[in-house]
C-alpha cells in the first residue's frame, strides 16, 4: 500500500467511522454470531499474494463488523462503559503512525514528557493529594488496565515489604535471604469481598495469599476500618504477614466506596502495608468537585489508579496509575543492561517509564489523552460526567416508579442502578425471576446488561456512560425491561 | 467534536501522516529537545474550556512532533526496528473507533475469533511445530510485548511446577502448602548472558531466582546443551529448583540463536522445566522458509514468542505468544467472579483471552495484523524481510571493505552488524575509540545507533528493518560512520 493508496483508504475509513457513529443507536448492541462463526468464512491460511484494499475492506464490512459488540451504543448497559471519542481516535491514529516501543526518554522524548504532564493535569483536576504529583517523590504513569496497575503495585509492595520489614532486620546477605524465603509464603493481600477480581489475580501472579473481607449492606458494602483491623489481627494470629490492601472507589458489582480514612487509621501502626485505591470506574467522577469528598483519607495511601478508558472519553487503554514514591516502582522493576543505557537516562534528568511497569515497551498513549483534555476542556468533561450520571438517575427513578415489579438492591452511585425483579407467585424467588429476565434480555439482544450476585442475591446492573446516551434511549430501555419483566412474572 | 468536525480533522490527519512518511528520510532521526522541554511550553493545568482542533493541532505540530524520535526513518539503526505500515495504521484507527476492553468472547466476538485465526495463520507460515496451533491443546495470544510474554509464561511455569513437581507429592492441603512455601524461595529460571533483560525482570516479578549462563564467542554466543546441563546440575547441588528456561532466537546484543535441540536434550529428564523461546526480533525472519531450520528442536518447547511489531510491519503492540498447553495459562490466570460469567464462556465453546494474560482488558489488535497480512500477503512480507536483510548485508560488506578501520565483532545475523572501531595509536583501545565514535554519532543526531558491550567489548550495533530503508541510505550511513571514525582516530 503506497502513501496515495493509504490516503484513499484512510479517507474512506474516516467516512465509515462517521457513518458508524451516526447509526450507532440503530445497531443491534450485541452480535448475533455463534461461536466459531469467523473460522467458517475466512480461509485456513494467510493469503500468498497481496490483496486489494477494496477486497480487504469488503470482508471487514461483511465478516468483522457483524461480530462486534457495540460498546458505544446507548443500549450497552453492561459492566462499565468503555468510552471512545473523536479526539481520542485521532490520537490513536497518530500514535500508530509514529509507532515506537518508547521504553525510555530518548526513544521519543515527547512520549515521556507529555505523559508526565497530562497525568499531573489529571491529578490536579481530580483533587488527588499532592503526593501523587510528579514534582516531588511521586508521579503518574499510564498502564494498560486497572488490573495491570494492581499487579504492578502489589509486586512493588511485596518487594518493599521483604526489604524494609524483613531483610533489614538481618546483618548478613545469607540471613537476609533465609528470612525473605521464609516470609514470602506468609505474605497476604487484603481486599473486600466487593473488590474487583483483579486483586485476587494479582495475588496469584505475585505468589502471595489473598483475603477478601466480608462487607455488609448496612455499610453500603464499603470496607470499614474496624473490619480491616480485625482481619489484620486474625491474619497475624495465624502467622501471616499483611503487606497490601486494595480499597475501592466504586466496586464492580455495586459501586461501593470504601472508607479510606478509616482504613488509613486501621493501618497507621503498619507502615509497611501498601494501600492502593482502585478507582477504575468511579475515579472519572472526581473530575467534578462535588465528588472529591470521596478522596478523604487517600492522602495516607501509597497508590491510586483510575481508567480514563472507562467513563472519561479516552479509548482503551489508558489506566492512570499514581504512586506516592516512584522509587518503590523503580526498585522493583529496574533492570538496566548495557544496550538500554544512554546519556539522557544516565543523567537522571528524565523519567524512563519502563521502570514503572511490567512490560518494557510502551505506546504513545498520552497523545490521545492530551487531545481529549483539550478538545473537551474541564467543562466538557464535567458536562459528560454529569449528563450521563443524570441519565443513570433518570433510569433509577423509572425503576422506583414500579416498586410493584422492581426492588433497588443497593443505593445507586456513579450512575449505576442495581435492582432485582420481584417474584409474583409463591414458590418463585427474586433470584429466579431476576435471572430469567436478565437471560432473556441478553438473549434477545435488544439491550446488553450484566447479571451478577450481590451478597448471594441475583441482581441486574444497569449503567451507561456513553456519550451517545440520552434520557429517551434510557426510557426505552426501561420500558423494554419492564415489558420483559411483566411477561416473565406472568409465565 | 461532532462527527463532521472529526471528518475534517481526520482527513487532515491522514494528509499529515502521508506528508510525514514522504519526508521521513529528510527528518533528523533523533530529536534535539532537552529534558523538560515540553513542561516549558505547555500550561500547568488542563484547559477549562474546550479548544478548537486547529489550536490543538498547531500545538501538536509545534511542540509534540519535534520531540519525536523517528523510528521509521532509514537513519534509525538503533536497538531493533519497530515497523509500522499503512494497513496497520488503518487497523489501529478502526480499533480505536470500536473501542472495547474485550476481556471475553461476548465482549466482541470478532476480537477473539480474528485473533485465534491470524495467530494460527502466522504459526503455520513461520513453520512453528503444530503443538502451538489452536486446534488441539495449544494456541496463540497477542501480548503487549515480549517482556510481558516472558512474565506470563514464567508465572504459569512457576505455578505448574509448584503444583505438579511439589504439591502433588503430598496428600494433605496443609502439607502441600508447607512444601510450596519451602519450594518457592528455591525456584530458579535460566537464560544465557545474552538473553534480553526481560527474563531477569520477569524473575523479579515472579519472585524467583535467576541465573544467566555464560556463552562464548566460539559458539557464536549461543546457549548450548552442555552449558545448560552443567548449570542445572550446579543449581541442584545448591538445593535450587530449576523450573524455567528462556532460549533466544536472535539475542539483543548480537542476534545469537540458542541451540534448541541441544537444550531440549539437556532437559529431557526435567519435564517440569518450562522451555520458552524468545524470538522477539528474529522470529519475523521465519516467514521465509530459508530461516525455518532455526526452529529445529522447538517442538520440545512449551512456548514461543515473536513480535510482529518489530520487523513484521505491524505497529507496536503485537507480540505473538504461542503455548503448547493453553491450560497452563488458564490454570495460572483464571479468576471468574459472577459479573464475568456469561453463557458463551460457560458453554466452553469460546476462548476468553483474559485467562491467557496478566491484564483483564485487551484491545482489538488482531485487526491490524489481519489488514497487514492481507495487504502484503506472504509474498509481500517475505519481500520486506529479504529486502531489509539485503540492506543489512550491504552494510556489513561496506564495513568489511575497511578492515583497516573496522572489525566485525560477531557473525552478522538477521541483518544486524556488530562491529568495533580499531584503534590507530598505541595506548588507545578499541573500546575507547568505539565508544567515542558511537557517542559522537548519537550526539550529532545524523544517525541513531546503539553502543553496547559484547563479552566486555564495546561494540556498535547497526540494524534496519524500516520499509523506508534503501541501499543508498545505508551507503550514506556507512560513509558518515567512516568519516567520523577516521576523524576520531586522527585526534
Walk me through this protein's architecture.
- The structure is a homodimer of 491-residue chains.
- With 491 residues, chain A is an alpha/beta fold.
- Chain A has a domain at 100-362: Type I PLP-dependent aspartate aminotransferase-like (Major domain) (Aspartate Aminotransferase, domain 2, 3-Layer(aba) Sandwich).
- Chain A contains 16 helices and eleven strands.
- Chain A has helices spanning 3-22, 37-41, 53-64, 86-97, 109-126, 146-166, 173-184, 198-206, 225-237, 260-266, 308-311, 326-333, 343-347, 366-401, 430-444, 471-490, and strands spanning 139-143, 187-192, 209-213, 241-248, 274-278, 303-307, 319-323, 406-413, 416-421, 450-454, 457-462.
- Chain A has a seven-stranded mixed β-sheet, sandwiched between helices.
- In chain A, β2, α8 and β3 form a beta-alpha-beta unit.
- In chain A, α9 runs parallel beside α10 (260-266).
- At the A-B interface, α1, α2, α3, α4 and α5 of A face α1, α2, α3, α4 and α5 of B.
Strand order of the largest sheet of chain A: 1-7-6-5-4-2-3
CATH domain fold name of the domain at 100-362 in chain A: Aspartate Aminotransferase, domain 2
Question: Element order, helices and strands of chain A?
Answer: HHHHHEHHEHEHEHEEHEHHHEEHEEH
Name the largest protein-protein interface in this structure. Answer: A-B, 157 and 156 residues
According to CATH, the homologous superfamily of the domain at 100-362 in chain A is: Type I PLP-dependent aspartate aminotransferase-like (Major domain)
Shape of chain A: globular
Question: Gyration radius of chain A, to the nearest Å?
Answer: 24 Å
- How many helices of chain A does DSSP assign? 16
Helix/strand class of chain A: alpha/beta
Total beta strand runs of chain A: 11
In CATH, the architecture of the domain at 100-362 in chain A is: 3-Layer(aba) Sandwich
| Largest sheet geometry of chain A | 7 strands, mixed
